[in-house]
Amino acid sequence: MTTLEIEKMGTTERLETIEMLWDALCHDETDIKSPAWHEEVLNARKQRIESGEAKFIPLEQLKERLRK
């Protein structure tokens, strides 16, 4: 499938294609390793939570911020 073919698809067809690809990836037995920096970011976030430094906001407040 080419980019041109994808661009010609309607939104529904694109979403269905994404769903099929995601489903195929979920059932793939290939072991894909996350890069080391993923673990570093997760560890830093966990440390901020455990130290009380992390600040959380309600989901609705986050959505409002993202709309601006």
> Structural class, judged by helices and strands?
mainly alpha
Distance between the termini: 36 Å
Number of domains: 2
Q: What's the average pLDDT?
A: 94
Q: What amount of the residues lies in strands?
A: under 5%
Radius of gyration: 19 Å
Given the structure, what is the number of helices? 4
Please count the beta strands (DSSP E, at least 2 residues each).
0
Order of helices and strands: HHHH
Q: Report helical residue fraction.
A: 55-70%
Give the overall silhouette.
flat
Poorly predicted parts: none
| Biggest sheet details | none
Layout of strands and helices, then pairs:
Blueprint: H1 3-8, H2 11-26, H3 36-51, H4 59-67
What does this structure look like?
The structure is a single chain. With 68 residues, this protein is an all-alpha fold. The chain has 2 domains: 32 residues, no CATH class; 34 residues, no CATH class. It contains 4 helices and no strands. The chain is flat and about 50 Å long. The chain starts with a helix and ends with a helix. The model has no long low-confidence stretch (mean pLDDT 94).
Task: Characterize this entry briefly.
With 68 residues, the chain is an all-alpha fold. The chain is 69% helix and 0% strand. The protein has two domains: 1-32, no CATH class; 35-68, no CATH class.
